[in-house]
Amino acid sequence: xxxxxxxxxxxxxxxxxxAEQAGDLIVGMRAHSRLNIQFKQDIExxxxxxxxxxxxxxxxxxxxxxxxxxxxxxxNPDIASISYxxxxxxxxxxxxxxxxxxxxxxxxxxxxxYAVKGRVQVAVVYNPFQSEMYCAIRNQGAWxxxxxxxCSQTNKMDKAIIATGFPYDKRGVLPQLMSRLHAILENVADxxxxxxxxxxxxxxxxxxxxxxxxxxxxxxxxxxxxxxxxAGAKVGHFIPPPKDxxxxxxxxxxxxxxxxxxxxxxxxxxxxxxDDSSLSKGLLKLRVFYRQLLDKQS
Length: 298
What we know:
It is a single chain. Helix content is about 40%, strand content about 20%. The chain is of the alpha+beta class. The protein has two domains: about 5-150, Fructose-1,6-Bisphosphatase, Chain A, domain 1; about 155-295, D-Maltodextrin-Binding Protein, domain 2 (3-Layer(aba) Sandwich), CATH 3.40.190.80. The chain has a seven-stranded mixed β-sheet, sandwiched between helices. The chain has a five-stranded mixed β-sheet with strand order 11-10-12-14-13, with helices on both faces. A two-stranded antiparallel sheet has the order 1-2. The longest helix has 27 residues, at about 5-30.
């Protein structure tokens, strides 16, 4: 498989076209209130627009590249079915921010990544409600609506704006989540929660945010992490990933920020890691944290 500039630009054009078509589809379905809302495992919200967008994208890939692999949140979320060899893999989130989408919030994206041997080569993240198309080609840069992207130059933690998110099922993990959030809030200016991991990361690439951390699925971040990296951000994990899994597709304990803040954020998040014996202390810390928030609001 050759990865010449022309080949990757052709892949990017194809990905952009699919994202635009899917964007038109989901905007139209929401505008006409044609949404059927269900819940996967009675927890995670999904709409018929997710399924329609997924089908539109995967059908086009199968028609143009029948030999390629597809990892898609709705039609094939089985990570174990994917091999990280020379056969390209398309990693798709047909609607990132489905809860936002169903509640008529604008922070919604279609995410498409093209990867070979576990490394993303081309990335598209498209927010059709704000007409923002983020793109990147490996080693060639990142763009928003064809304008080059550069991450922020914030170099002081107490001036930084950091984004994160939380899983739908918080059972058993809430103490750890709050320990990290508490540690971050003690050290930075403020925290944002957009509801779309792909857009969180693209906003880091754009400089709207200074950093981002979370645990997510490959389709949530695969495209956006390349966009951030090509914009100058540092991409990694605050707890090392397994050696037998491609790091660019491993979404646990993900950390992305401008280079000046990365090490400090890494240290804060790593130090907030709870072991089993610390969970009761974490719960106590959580109660104190909420008490402090209430005191500030009163």
